[in-house]
Each structure stands twice: as structure tokens, then as C-alpha cells.
Design brief:
The protein has about 500 residues and is an all-alpha fold. The chain contains 16 helices and 2 strands. It has a two-stranded antiparallel sheet with strand order 1-2. The radius of gyration is 24 Å and the shape is globular. The termini are far apart.
Length: about 500
């Protein structure tokens, strides 16, 4: 987000860019639409990385996150996150139920677009944040308590952290002048920098993911057998959709159709490319093979790393940020095997570590010249403008978000888990059968034999196993059968 959209003597701000037509409104609505794709894209990515018997349920969880958070956002989430009448910790209920969310702008937050467009755009950030969390507990979490968790977590973790970072009176955004964060005061808007969500989206979700996977425990058979991705095509498609959506995620965070939005989009794709190359080469040095998972992981690490920096850094700096973020995430994922927690799809390793690295690198490489592309004034970073204090602001904000999200998430999980019928962990048998069948009664994959007269008498025997029991089922090629991950023989279609 722009560090300042108003004139301020505290940071020598210039006259801000002000919309004179409808280009910025159209641009933000377009960005909201493509960022919306990121939530189901997370599900598709996670689906490909999971085993086939869990491939459908993780997509459903991502889509449910979108629906649940949308209702929460309309009820009070947006108001808590962005009302300009709050104090330093959280906003007020000024816009609860989308009351007064009409054509006016938020003058200290998004002065160039109507509040309705801004609220819709920010909704997409909240939804994808919640979806990210469930990568750490894939293949072993129940859906019903997860829905309850989504609603409450967004309220008590995401909304406050978004407010700290982007709210007009948020304490991270005004960390140099905390006395101005009180309600009714004019905030100085000089503090930590986070252009598009390194803290609220990535560090908050990553820390929550770590708490969730520790709370839930490891998957069965982890370490006894290799749990490999079942569909690399889905992994590539999910990554491509996320990369595409990130153009709106970072570019749209300029909150206007400006030169700064263009620069943020440029550095986004540069960092993704850098991250993909670095991770691929790091894995190649270990395995002597080129891995699709490595490339996709590196792309995502680069995108996460550039997120807080996108509207503050030059293209050459984005090469460094994407590469360093990818290297840090790669090492973090290797360390998890030593420490022993089961972050199934590396939600913590990619998002918390990548977001933290990107935040600190923003403090080093932020350039006041890039921010001034839309009239926003910042002091600049340590390496570019000699302002080392910004690194301190970034560190303070990042550590606070990580610690707050982890602790509050763990407590929330404990409390929900105590409610009858709300245990998060599936039974051993349900986990062996797979969440698609045990939680949904549906399957992501069907076997439909080819019908051909010359093979009319052919019968095929397949082995069906749930990890505990194994049996054979006979498939007649003249009819279609659904292959269910259970030890019972499937019924004819």
C-alpha cells in the first residue's frame, strides 16, 4: 500500500496522485477479479501436491475459505481492517454490514478510488490468506471445524494485522510516531512499509500454518513411505494462475492506474523468474535433475518475497529479492525435516519465511524515487537512501506479526477443538481412506473403461487399498466404475 496519500510535513510528502476519471476504478476492479482467481488456484496447486485420495478436499477447503471470509468481510471484517476512525490496534464498526460503503473514498488509505471498489479488492487478499494456511495440514484435517476456524481466525488475526499494517492509524504504519495513532489524531503515516501483504497475507498465514501443523501432528506413514505429488500438471497450472493473479495482487496495491502500479507489476514478474531459477538450480546441485516442483516453489517464493517490496524497489533489486527469498525458503524447507514438524505443503516455509525475508529486504532496497512515481514520499531504504531505521521498523513489524499470529492461532485451535464434534484431526481410518471419500463422499478421479466390441469379454482386476486393507475389484470394460479409495468394491455407475 502507498505509505502516504496525503500531504505531510513529517515525511516531506508531495501532492498525491488524484484520480480525474475512472481509469483507476476500472483498474482496481480488474485487479480484484484476477486476484480472486488466486484462492481456487491455491487449491489447485495444493491438490496437485497432495496424494490423489486427498486432491478434491483441499480444493473444496480453498473455495470454502473464499465463501466464509466473504461473509465475514461484509459483516465486519472490512470495517475492522480499514476504518479510519480506530486507534492503533484495530478499526471500528463504522462500516459493519457495508454501511456507508458507497462512492466516497478513504482519504488516508485509498484516496483515488471509491471505497466499494477498495473493499472488494481487499476482500480477495483476506480470502487467499485463509486458504494458504491449510497447506500445512493437508490430508488430515476435518472440514467442519475448519469452517469455524476460518471465520474466527479472520476476525482475530487477519483483521488486526491488516489494520496494523495498512490502516490509517495502524501502529506498524505509524511506528515512528505512535502518539498519533490514537483515535481522532492525525497519523504521521511514517513507519514500516508493506506494499501488498508480506505481513498480513504471508507472514500471518505462514505462522498460523506452523501452529496448525504442530497442533494437529504428523500424517500417518510420514517417513515410512514417500508422499509424492500426484499430479504435476495441476501444480504447474496452479502456479501459473497464481503468477497471473499476482499482477493484480501487487500492481493493484498502488490503488490507482499509475506509473507506480506499472513498476510494481514489472518487479513482480522479475522476482518470480529470479526465484524460479535460483530454487531450480539449488535443487539441481543436490539431485542432478531439474524438478518441476522446485521451479514452481521458487516462483512462488520469489512472488512472496517481492510482495512487501513491489511498490518500493527497482527491477534490478527485485532480481536480488526474488533470488534471496527463494534461497531462504529452500533452506527453511530442508530444516523442517531436521526439526520434525509436518508442514505438508510448505505453507510456513514458503509464506512466513518468504514474507519475512521480503520485508527485511524491503528495508534494505526501498527507493524513495520509486515511491514518488505516484507522489508517495518515503525516506527510503538502507542500501539505497542510507536510512537504516527502516530496517528496524520492518523487523519490529514482522516479528510482531509472526508471534501474534502463531500464539493466537494455537490458542484458537485449542478452544475450538474442545467443542464437542469439532475435533480437527480425522481418524486414522479416515486419513487412510483419504479426505475426498471420508469427508466428502466424492472422488477426484473416476475410471471409465473404453467400450470396444472386440474387447467385450475383457475384464480388468484392480487393487484397491486404504493403507490398512487391500482387496481386488473386477472391472467390466462395458460399464463405468468409480474408483473409491476404500477396501469395498465400487458399485457400477
Amino acid at each position: 500500500m502507498p505509505a502516504s496519500l496525503t500531504t505531510s510535513t513529517a515525511n516531506n510528502a508531495t501532492t498525491p496522485f488524484v484520480e480525474v476519471g475512472f481509469a483507476s476504478t476500472a483498474y482496481i476492479l480488474f485487479c480484484a477479479a484476477i486476484v480472486m482467481l488466486m484462492t481456487p488456484a491455491v487449491g489447485l496447486l495444493y491438490s496437485g501436491l497432495s496424494r490423489s485420495k486427498n486432491s478434491l478436499s483441499i480444493i473444496l477447503i480453498s473455495c470454502l475459505a473464499y465463501a466464509v471470509v466473504t461473509i465475514q468481510w461484509i459483516c465486519f471484517g472490512f470495517s475492522l481492517s480499514f476504518s479510519e476512525s480506530g486507534a492503533g490496534f484495530i478499526g471500528t464498526l463504522e462500516y459493519a454490514g457495508f454501511t456507508n460503503v458507497l462512492t466516497q473514498a478513504l482519504p488516508l488509505t485509498a484516496a483515488a478510488i471509491p471505497i466499494s471498489a477498495f473493499a472488494l479488492y481487499q476482500l480477495q487478499f483476506a480470502t487467499v490468506t485463509v486458504a494458504i494456511i491449510f497447506g500445512s495440514v493437508a490430508e488430515r484435517v476435518r472440514i467442519l471445524p475448519s469452517i469455524v476456524f476460518m471465520f474466527i481466525w479472520t476476525t482475530i488475526v487477519y483483521d488486526p494485522v491488516a489494520y496494523w499494517t495498512w490502516g490509517a492509524h495502524g501502529w506498524i504504519r505509524n511506528i515512528s510516531c505512535l502518539n498519533t495513532t490514537a483515535s481522532g489524531e492525525t497519523p504521521c503515516l511514517v513507519g514500516g512499509l508493506d506494499f501488498a501483504g508480506g505481513g498480513p497475507v504471508h507472514m500471518a498465514s505462514g505462522a498460523a500454518a506452523l501452529a496448525f501443523c504442530i497442533f494437529l501432528g504428523k500424517r500417518k506413514f510420514l517417513g515410512q513411505r514417500e508422499l509424492k505429488p500426484h499430479n504435476m500438471i495441476n501444480v504447474f497450472i496452479g502456479t501459473a494462475l497464481l503468477w497471473f493473479g499476482w499482477f493484480g495482487f501487487n500492481g493493484g496495491s498502488a490503488l490507482g492506474a499509475t506509473s507506480r502500479a506499472a513498476m510494481a507489476t514489472v518487479v513482480t514478474t522479475v522476482a518470480a523468474s529470479s526465484g524460479g531459477l535460483v530454487w531450480t538450480l539449488m535443487d539441481f546441485m543436490h539431485t542432478k535433475k531439474f524438478s518441476g516442483v522446485a521451479f514452481c516453489s521458487g516462483v512462488l517464493a520469489g512472488l512472496v518475497g517481492i510482495t512487501p517490496a513491489a511498490g518500493f524497489v527497482t527491477p534490478w533489486a527485485s532480481i536480488v529479492i526474488g533470488g534471496v527469498a527463494a534461497a531462504c525458503c529452500n533452506l527453511a524447507i530442508r530444516i523442517k525435516e531436521v526439526i520434525g514438524y509436518d508442514d505438508a505443503l510448505d505453507a510456513f516455509g514458503l509464506h512466513a519465511v518468504g514474507g519475512f525475508a521480503g520485508s527485511i529486504l524491503t528495508g534494505l532496497f526501498a527507493s524513495k524515487d520509486v515511491a514518488l512515481l505516484d507522489g508517495t514520499a518515503i525516506a527510503g531504504g538502507a542500501f539505497i537512501n542510507g536510512e537504516w531505521i527502516l530496517v528496524g521498523y520492518q523487523l519490529a513489524g514482522s516479528v510482531s506479526i509472526l508471534v501474534y499470529s502463531f500464539i493466537v492461532t494455537y490458542i484458537l485451535l485449542l478452544l475450538i477443538n474442545m467443542i464437542p464434534g469439532m475435533k480437527f484431526r480425522v481418524s486414522d481410518h479416515e486419513e487412510s481412506v483419504g479426505l475426498d471419500f471420508s469427508q466428502m463422499g466424492e472422488s477426484g478421479y473416476d475410471i471409465v473403461p473404453c467400450v470396444d466390441d472386440k474387447y467385450s469379454n475383457m475384464k480388468t482386476t484392480i487393487e484397491i487399498t486404504d493403507g490398512l486393507n487391500t482387496s481386488n475389484a473386477t472391472i467390466d470394460d462395458r460399464v463405468a466404475y468409480t474408483v473409491l479409495p476404500t477396501h469395498t468394491v465400487p458399485e457400477k455407475a
